[in-house]
Write a structure and sequence with these properties.
35% of the residues lie in helices and 15% in strands. It is an alpha/beta fold and 175 residues long. The strands form two sheets. Strands 3-2-1-4 form a four-stranded mixed sheet, with helices on one face. The protein has a two-stranded parallel sheet with strand order 5-6.
Length: 175
């Protein structure tokens, strides 16, 4: 398998985009400090996946993300190919059903997939989401309405929620 990658700028900082050789999205990763190899890329390389820089291969993903960041897109129309367990795939599927600008708690996601006692496992699956933003794990918050961990950091989570007009993100972003 070949993975095509390209880094773009965003309101949340640089994002590494990754698609497979069929153009399906396999990853979006918040890029850390200069010289820090993104964990997603590191895992692919360790598995023997060829990683090739290609702005062209990731162009459609980049275009739809730009539209989202500009407030022109609320739903993504992309083929996704995340790798995960059956449970993770169910959680990620449910995340995609959270409407733009809304939030759900971990417990609500657990109940929606028929596992009401699995909110901690939902949290772990949420944290393992390889395609943030498109699979909107930023829309999951604590049961008390608080923002909880996010792979891109809480500032990025606030930014994404504020961008979607969510009062949770807007209120916290304005503090």
């Amino acid at each position: 398998m070949t993975c095509y990658v390209h880094t773009i700028g965003s309101p949340c900082g640089p994002l590494l985009l990754a698609v497979d050789d069929h153009g399906a999205v396999i990853g979006i990763e918040f890029v850390g400090p200069e010289g820090c190899e993104p964990p997603f890329l590191d895992r692919l390389v360790r598995r023997g996946v060829a990683v090739v820089e290609s702005e062209d291969a990731t162009a459609e993903l980049a275009r739809q993300l730009a539209e989202y960041f500009d407030g022109e897109r609320q739903e993504f129309e992309l083929e996704l190919a995340p790798e995960g367990s059956d449970f993770q795939l169910r959680v990620w599927g449910e995340l995609r059903r959270i409407p733009y600008g809304e939030t759900r708690s971990y417990g609500e996601i657990a109940a929606a997939i028929g596992r009401p006692d699995a909110s901690r496992a939902v949290g772990a699956a949420n944290g393992a989401n390889p395609i943030p933003i498109v699979v909107p794990c930023h829309r999951v918050i604590g049961a008390n309405g608080s923002l909880t961990g996010f792979g891109g950091g809480l500032a990025a989570k606030r930014t994404l929620l504020a961008l979607e007009g969510n009062p949770v993100g807007r209120d916290l972003f304005d503090e």
